[in-house]
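quick one before i forget lol
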Amino acid sequence: MIQFQHILCPTDLSDASRPALRYAAAIAAWYDAQLTVLHVVPTFDAIQIPPGALGETVQLVYPATHAEVVAMLQQQAEATGATAVNPALEAKAGDATDLIVGRALTLQADLVVMGTHGRSGFNRLLYGSIAEQVLHRASCPVLAVPPHAPATADVTFKRVVCALDFSPASLQAVGFALDLARQANGALTVLHTVEWLPEEEPRVHTHFNVPEYRQHLIDDARARIMELIGDESQTWCAIEPVVTAGRAYREILRVAKERGADLIVMGTQGRGGIGLALAGSATQQVVRGAACPVLTVRGAP
């Protein structure tokens, strides 16, 4: 059974990060877990601004002090009701991604809860967001909460959609999804998407039946899902195996919307670098487009 003991919730103190803190506090209360709320700033030291013209003096800009940042964390915790679980409030200076990933390791956190801003555009495509970088580097599961996620004090996920591509990470994700749905006495949709083979028919001389082979892949995937979940799992909660054809992230978002999902669960392989940032991944696309929280589970090395 999943049992979260220490939850880390990084926040940028914006309104968009408040839903994530609400979810983190609710999960901490449900599992009687310790909650640490972290805000990272570039520096606490004074910053020198060079003179803009000859004769002007160097200006000093003083960022918020450590005590001021902790006070802002306390205000956000009070506004979201997180003070009910007596969270530890931490303010640190440095690179946000490195500090979040490192702090999760130091605390031995078994869940990171982060807000996503849902921004788009070239800068987001090229550099990625801090949340996306963390979900690909963190050794523990990451719950990405969109700013428009419904405000709730109830963390029992009644309708869970789990994306399965049969990779080691997605197999672990199925285990998480099964347990969360079981604890909520809810329903789980296990979704596999066949992405290979276009809709167009082949050239006449190829003698290759595309629709027939696509159906073979769909039937095979459905059989593998049923073998994976087994008879015993079906006594825990209602399980619906679904196999579709198309782009994986589009199908995940579509099925989650149709099922009114409270949670999407999927694996991430922990890849990074400029190739992933430019090309994107199904995980990133789902995190950006989901209307509900997305739990990503890192595959074993």
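fyi The chain has two domains: 1-149, 156-301.
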